[in-house]
Amino acid sequence: MLTQIANDTRTPAVHEPVVAVLGQRSRVAGLPPYLPGGWHMRLATGLDDIEWGELVVLSGATVHDVRVARSVLPPDTRIVALIDDWAQAELVSGVLTAGADVCVRGGHPGILAGHLVACHRRQRVERWS
To answer: Which are the contacts of 91, defined by CB distance < 8 A and separation ≥ 6?
Structure first.
């Protein structure tokens, strides 16, 4: 079962992935039911609130947001840029060039969840290789 953590100081076990969300909360409101069992979603207060190993979703991401996040966060942190459905191709290429691991246009939360699962798998493989 998915547990949503909002400003919770508990630290989940290492094997339980955490999705830390920065930005527009309304865009990720429907995400928790689509995350795998044992995963947690929390609303981060800023980049300094991101813990090692968390998957970071920049909701309503801009190129500047991604550039700053990539410069502050450890290199192995997965950054997912969530943008509007109707965003222009320049924004997609801009956030990817700025360092996002993946760019997801809004839409169904199941699509975002699928990208988060894929990012987590890549993150685990890289740590073991």
So the answer is: 62, 63, 83
Split into its structural domains, the chain has a count of 1
Q: How far apart are CA 47 and CA 126, in angstroms?
A: 23
Give the CATH number for residue 122: 3.40.50.2300
What pLDDT does residue 87 have? 94
Residue that has been written with the tokens 């979703």 in this structure: 57
How far apart, in whole angstroms, are the C-alpha atoms of residue 20 and residue 8? 12
Question: What is the DSSP pairing of strand 3-6 with strand 40-43?
Answer: parallel
Which tokens is 63 given? 């190129």
* Per-residue pLDDT tens over the stretch 91-104: 999 999 999 999 99
Mean pLDDT (whole number) for 24-38: 95
Length of the chain: 129
Phi, psi dihedrals of residue 22, rounded to the nearest 5°? -120, 140
Residue-range definition of the domain harbouring residue 100: 3-8+17-128
Burial 51-80 (b: 16+ CB within 10 A, else e): eebbbbbbbbbbbebbbebbeebeeebbbb
